[in-house]
Write a structure and sequence with these properties.
By secondary structure, this protein is an alpha/beta fold. The chain has a single domain, classed as Arginase, Chain A, CATH 3.40.800.10. Helix content is about 30%, strand content about 15%. The protein has eight helices and eight strands. Strands 2-1-3-8-7-4-5-6 form an eight-stranded parallel beta sheet, with helices on both faces. The protein is globular, with a radius of gyration of 18 Å. The termini are close together. The structure holds manganese (II) ion (MN) (2 copies).
């Protein structure tokens, strides 16, 4: 635990100037790549070359940062948690420089940059971008932390097999992560799976060892029982990947492949709050596509989920 002083990085005072002004950083925390003086790095990964249907998540990091401008660093939470910026040095790392159209080079670049961040002992919080980007982040985390448990919120299991000679897209991420032994499926959970996907892909994910909680099963289980299951499964280092399409399109329409009958915004907030106590080594929010986001409600939800995650770290 660090002791805050006047040099401590803090979000800009929300009443000291226009909260829509200044640098476009997450919650207006200072921009920095000084890894020696950071605990958490907010990292934008503006790439959607892995998208199989509607693109647009390349603008996700901008959308989430924009929507975060109105947020204040407090917590109205039953547990009265202290706001995270007092105990954690949170910087906005900016975006990883990627060139559109080159997926393999982009994934390699993400892995390289994330390796530097993680080796410095800084916990990455990534703003996507499409879900193909989680693979290189997991690869980088694996080098430092070893085999991980995955807590994966998504409408889709992202466990499909890519075509011959083209293994990478946003629906193949976790099949590759298992085959590369980045994650231990038996210690992992996929929550919110639903929609017009084949039953066989659900069976395949389960046969690989994943604990898969469909949206229908979640509706019966509820938040508390789902969290109990997550905490009983997760072993060792945990990576949390949150595809915003786990949430119902009524609450999160701004995404490329929405599926009806998903989680509410309240349910996903409570699930993220419930991650408190897990040994989380990395977190991402992916698949936010601002072009389909009327009134910025998806971006605002994504920004709040990042903040709720930071609160869970401040509590530990
Ligand atoms: Mn999805
Ligand atoms: Mn996904």
């Amino acid at each position: 635990m660090h002791v805050a002083d006047e040099t401590w990085p803090r979000p800009a005072d929300w009443q000291a100037g226009p909260p829509y002004g200044g640098a476009y950083t997450f919650m207006r925390v200072p921009p920095s790549r000084d890894l020696q003086h950071a605990d958490i790095a907010i990292i934008g990964i503006p790439f959607d070359g892995g998208t199989m249907y509607r693109s647009g998540t390349r603008l996700g990091p901008r959308g989430i940062r924009n929507a975060s401008g109105q947020m204040r660093p407090y917590a109205v939470d039953p547990q009265r948690l202290e706001e995270p910026f007092r105990s954690l040095r949170v910087f906005d790392y900016g975006d990883i420089e990627l060139y559109p159209g080159y997926i393999e080079q982009s994934l390699a670049r993400v892995e390289q940059e994330l390796t530097t961040v993680i080796e410095a002992g800084v916990l990455p919080v990534c703003l996507g971008g499409d879900h193909s980007l989680t693979l290189p982040v997991l690869r980088a985390c694996r080098k430092k932390h070893g085999l991980m448990s995955l807590i994966h919120f998504d409408a889709h299991p992202d466990f499909w097999e890519g075509g011959p000679g083209r293994p990478y897209h946003h629906g193949t991420t976790f099949r590759l992560a298992v085959s590369e032994q980045l994650i231990n499926p038996a210690g992992s959970a996929q929550i919110g799976i639903r929609g017009s996907i084949s039953a066989s892909i659900v069976d395949e994910a389960r046969q690989a060892g994943f604990n898969l909680i469909t949206a229908d099963e979640f509706a019966r289980l509820g938040v508390s029982a789902t969290l109990e299951r997550i905490h009983s499964l997760a072993r060792g280092p945990v990576y949390v990947s949150l595809d915003i399409d786990c949430v119902d399109p009524a609450f999160a329409p701004g995404t490329g492949t929405p599926e009806v009958a998903g989680l509410t915004s309240r349910e996903i907030v409570e699930l993220v709050r419930g991650l408190r106590g897990l040994s989380v080594v990395g977190f991402d929010v992916v698949e936010v596509a601002p072009a389909y986001d009327p009134a910025e409600i998806t971006c605002l939800l994504a920004a709040n989920l990042v903040y709720e995650f930071l609160l869970t770290l401040a509590a530990r």
